[in-house]
UniProtKB/TrEMBL annotation:
Record organism: Roseburia zhanii
Record's keyword terms, sorted: Coiled coil, Membrane, Transmembrane, Transmembrane helix
Record field: transmembrane: 176-198, 204-224
Organism domain of life: Bacteria
Region (Disordered): 1-22
Comp. bias (Basic residues): 1-10
Compositional bias annotation for Basic and acidic residues: 11-21
Coiled-coil annotated spans: 89-119
Annotated protein name in UniProt: Uncharacterized protein
Amino acid sequence: MGFFKRRKAKKLEAERKKNEGRQAQLEGTFKEDYSGNKKVQHYILDCCEQIIEASKEIEEEKAEYKIVTDYLNDIQILEDLPDEEADAIRGAAENVQKLDRLRDEYQNSEKRISDVQFVQMQQEEDTIPDAIIRLQTNETYQNAVKKDMNYLEGEKTEWYYNKLELLHQQKILKMLSFVLLGVFFASMVILLVLQIGFHTDTTYAWMSVILIAAVGSFCIFIKMSSNQTEIKRSEVNMNHAIVLLNKVKFKYVNVTNAVDYAREKYHVKNAYELKYLWEQYLNEVKEREKFRQTNEDLEYFNTKLVRLLKRYRLYDASVWINQSSALVDKKEMVEVKHNLIVRRQKLRSRIEYNMQNIRERRDEVDRMLRKEHINTPEVRQIINSIDNLSI
């Protein structure tokens, strides 16, 4: 299992450096001139390098093999514990497992408020409730003022068109009065011609013409006077609507500036969204407090679990913090144990393979030395260095 991998011991690192120093010494020796035996010397050097590399691998594999064995021994110790002691460890592990799950759920949960928004809410935590109420009030007032403004705009337009209609009527009445005057004079001429030229009695005709002219003129006069009064009233009402509209517009501009400032400040579209953001902030505060408490509890039970495990002098008690499920579920422990056994078998096979490779390379070097009759002090020093490698 990956969680059981650890760095190799410092003493193995020192041994590895010692072997590397011997390899460097070996290579330096072969850089000297050996006349016609250079090809053989290079071949022997290659074999020696292979032996050194294989020995390094064996060191690492033995170190890991020991670690895996130590972990298997730890598992065996845990499996052999009395029920009462095992229950205590299992209880602590269950708490660790539960708290780990809660922490993961929080960390993987979808954030409904960004960190920037959270910081802003936190900085203005004392003023946000009042800001929400103020924005709600301003938005309500803004809507009311807007309705008043639209109403006054309609009133102004209505009185304006009423005035235009009355002025149009005045023009028509004025034209009608001229027509009536023209008809009256024409009737007078006709009646005079009939009376003087034809000696016709036109008394009743005169009475009718004068009566019609008088009634028509009176009606036109009354209507025009009434229209003139209405025109003045329309102008007064229209001007009054304009004055009120200007006042309302001023109020609307002020409240709109206040609303826009609040929306821009909190990066929201309306008071409803600001209220929602505030509610999410309060929820996040609770969740973060719960997360903090969970971390404290997790730290407590982690420490408790390690303390319980250290009683049995395990190789690595802290590794079980990340494998608490294996302490709770026997199937998980069997799986962990199986993986470690498989890993150890692979390491053993690899060590045996490298050991065999070293023996073969060493025999090959001896064979070449005997065949080529090379037995100089330098070569013997190299062979001795290889034989002294820690395998």
